[in-house]
Amino acid sequence: MRIALLIAAKDLRQRVRDRSALLIAVVAPLGLAFIFAGLLGNTTEFHAAYVVANLDGGQLAQVLRTDVIGGMAAAGAATVTDVPTEAEARAAVDDGTADTAFVIPAGFTADIEAGRRVTLTLVGARQAVLQTAAAEALGRQFGDGVVTAQLAVVTTAGLTGATLGADQVQALTAQAASMAAPVTLTDSAAPLRQLSLATYFAASMAIMFLFFSSSFGIVSLFEERRRGTLARVLAGPVHPGEVLIGKTLAGVGSGLLAMTVLVAATTLLIHADWGPPLGVAALAIGAILAAAGIATLVASFCRTAEAASAATSAVAITLAVLGGSFFPVSQAPDIMGTLALLTPHGWFMRGLGDLHGTDAAWTDALGPAAVLVAMGVVLGGIGLLRARKLVAIQ
Amino acid sequence: MIDPRKVLEIGRVNLVMQVRDRADLFFVFVLPTIIVIALGLQFGGTTAARLGVVSPVGDSSAQQLVQALETSTAQLDVRTMPDAPTLRSRVEHGQLEAGLVIPDGYGAALASGRGTVSLEFIGTDGSLTTGLRATVEAEVSQVTAVQTAARVAASAAGVPLASAQAAAAKAYATVPGLALDTTIVGQQGQFAGFSQFTFGASTQLILFMFLTSMTNAGRLVYTRQLGVSRRMLSTPSSVGTIVAGEALGRYLVAMFQAAYIVGVTALAFRVSWGDPLATTVLIALFGLCAAGVAMLLGALARNPSQASSLGVFAGLGLGALGGCMIPFSIMPPTMQQVARLLPHSWALLGIQSLISDGGGLASVATNAAVLGAWGAVAMGLAAWRLRRALTA
User: Fold this and answer.
1) Going by fewer Cβ within 10 Å, which terminus of chain B is more open, N or C?
2) What is the ipTM of this complex?
3) pLDDT by residue (tens digit) across B5-30?
4) How far apart are CA A143 and CA A164, in angstroms?
5) Considering only residues 104 to 123 of chain B, which have any Cβ-Cβ distance to chain A shorter than 8 Å?
């Protein structure tokens, strides 16, 4: 074991002094995380810019403007601007200053009170699909309030078969307005167990490049064999297994170093919020074991350093694409989400997500961390058994 | 003197080495294809907001509400969930934008005509919840209108609630109420005319032309390191011939990658690439930029591993900044300005506009001019540095 540790320590020292290695292990993931975080800004927030041309000004138009449309502004989801004419409202949508325009026609209040049909005109910008859908929903919500009273009158008239007098209509309208709603919608806030974009890309780039930094141990074995240093090491009182374990430990060690630097640097530089340290540590260790295990397994099928390094990179990038390193799989179709859970990347990101949200505890990450460790132990175990031939004395 | 035959030969050897390199096969052929498929799955997937619903089994009133949500004009993607905890977990993990729980006994409570049933709307503070809530509330308020009218009418007309509910539901469509007249204005979106795989194909074309050129730069360092360049110089070949040959080699590699991606996406994924002449011009000029930067890297790098690791990083980083990973239109304004400095954005936006508007060469003249200038500067700089590296 002492010899294995010696080999691992020597490899790690070499690794830290290698500038190309530092570029791949630290600079590249950090730089890419920084770029992604900058590119995405705040794109997931919903916000609507509404413009209202209130050509009526009556009491019901005011209710629509202040209580219904204004309610969305009060909730912080919209900004509402008033303009005097329909043409100005349309112009605001055309030139992109507003997402959707409401045009409340003249005679709006009077028509509703007289039981005549009214039309609310909406003009939506093509890019603002959700904002316009929300505007339509606001209009319908107001419309259903209008309909309730009218419907109570029409239904009663239909059922009794009589024509109702004005005072009866008024009584029914008042009764409908004062009745408690038979169905209500109550809000229940769910904590979003998802990472901020800065954190998401910090983490996804970290695990993608972790595969490169933790594969170097096993890959360097090919080089040692080619140069003859392996044969010289084995000429001493050294068991081949110790060399193999030393190389694996070097991979795990460099993964650990890279991960620690990345977590610290992204926290400081792009304000990534990784979550409770114990949970993050559990996931990081799981991910490093999985990465080193997969690298060992892949390399065990190769014959030269070039082939091993190309094959481990190919596997690393494919798993990263499937595992959501380039785009969050939660937004993608279900099949992508399922595929992601076949990769260590998918479990790592899911585990980090579980660490977020108001009632999250560090132990929430233990499940995903256990999956990662299992992947590492099983795949790495098979890989080590297969890799024995690499250190066999020829 | 530059000897064209020798230039062609050096270029050809470079291309053959690239094609024969088994280790690179994955990155040149397989990886771009995987990414185009993955992006296609995402692009072709749902863009509608996803609403999870838990509804009591065998409750016809609840079924009606779910149906109303499914057919709503907001085009929700309504998904039935087995129970409230599953629904909540999916909302928490961002797999659904929001959820609605219709409680057990919903239909019975409506039939009783008394009291209030409360539906639980599970939403997060982040995402699209607010926009979605208004849509759900609109459907709920329709139920409320019918039920309220029925309760009022049943007591006023002295009939059983069930018949008042039936009458109110029937009368709902006939009351004057409020009509909505929605018109959509503005230009067709940036992605108009795109098939499922078009976005992925166009972005990966630009990303991989550059990335493959950059990772290939290591080979130029090898050529210098192993003394191949010195031996070529000892033959009766001018430095200019060798520099031109190496430049042609880089260029052929970039164009080879482009030909593969355009060909495979057109044949296998039925991507239609706009006007052939204009698209070819843009690709050919962008190839000049990619080859120039790659040759510059090959001339400056001290060893192959430095060149290839720097190449991967710069290839991915510049690709991301240039709009190959995050669509240009959703970048913040400052990052759009940064993207404008890179050839990627000019090539990509040009190619995408050719696909969506069906325009010709004239419509992308500016893009072509910028790419040409960029390519000329990059190539000139690279040729100068390589000449110095070879003769030093």
Assistant:
1) C
2) 0.73
3) 888 888 898 888 888 877 777 888 88
4) 23
5) 110, 115-123
